[in-house]
Please model this.
Amino acid sequence: MHTGSTTTEGHPFAPTLSHDREAQRHARAALMLALVALVALTAFSRPTPTDKACHPCDLEPSATLPSPAIAPAVVHAVMFWMAGCGHCQEVMNNVLPPLQSNYGEHLQVLLVQLVDQASVDRLFQAADELGVAKEDVGVPFLVVGRSALIGSGEIPDQLPGIIDAGLASGGIAFPQLASLADLAPSRAASQAVQATVLPSAAPSPSPLPVGDAPATADRSGFAAAWAVMVLLALSVLFTSYNFLGGPLPRFAALSSGRTWLVPLLIGIGLFIAGYLSYVELARVEAVCGPIGDCNAVQSSRYGKLFGVIPMGLFGVAGYLAMLAAWAWPRFRSDALARITPLLVFAAALFGVLFSIYLTYIELFVLHAVCAWCLANAVVMALLLLLTTPAALHSLEGGEPPD
Model:
């Protein structure tokens, strides 16, 4: 008799069920392998941070790489100036400050004050390197790159355009001139921000600050210059009045024009002119005393006649000619001796008029006073008054009074 067994061997669907279970196990295993493979693929396909650092080409530079520091473009310039120069003050007060405010750290101007012969020589050497003729040199004298701007006209007219062009091209380096090599800033200093115009680089007494009142010496010098200007004008007026028939001042009327006073004054004038010639030719600093700034006047373009002949030499020649004309009638009695008083007077009159011009230049153009020049002007005024009587007698055809 067949017994009811619960084994699957006798069940008609047993083989089928066993096969399905095995297939499911294979499917689960395959799914697991696929998931593991997917996870592994995902994990190994993502670059690690180390890989990212090693491949900067995969990075966005603007987002992850810092930009290298770029030094700002700077225009460097050097400007020569001197105290008492009205054109210099115009540039320093009204031209450079607005430019400095506008361009800030992008503009660096080094100021060099003319205070002695060495600083004047530096200016002329720089001008020579830039091809500027000596007679064309004046202050303010601004050097930017290989360009030279002279005066309160060229600097405001041309400097802004030069600055703009220089900044557009990456800046303008400190002037590469042998005369300025020792003034060139160090690399560190050249990168420093300059909020204002640099102070004077001249190894000299501190320059007059822009906008400050002139020193006491300058004020006293201007007062003396005005007094001399009045004396010169009065000498011309009194002489003209005398030629029209009026009397000269008593001290002039009592002199004959050939007394010892005339050669004495000519000798004083020769000493003054000779000293100024020595200062110019030897290129030394003049002893100015407590009044004015004679070195500033001497170093200006007005210190030379036609930009070539030092005023001192011109004065020496003039005084020697006057001395010769004064002495001629004392040794000769020819026709020339009768007109030499007129020649001496004409030379004195020219000297007075020329002194008026030079004193005007000191007061209104250079704003600096030369004590030696003022002394020479006083000598000329006295000579004009003292030689007038002899000139009048010569015109009248008579002998000059003794």
Remarks:
- Confidence is low (pLDDT under 50) at residues 1-14, 42-65, 187-217.
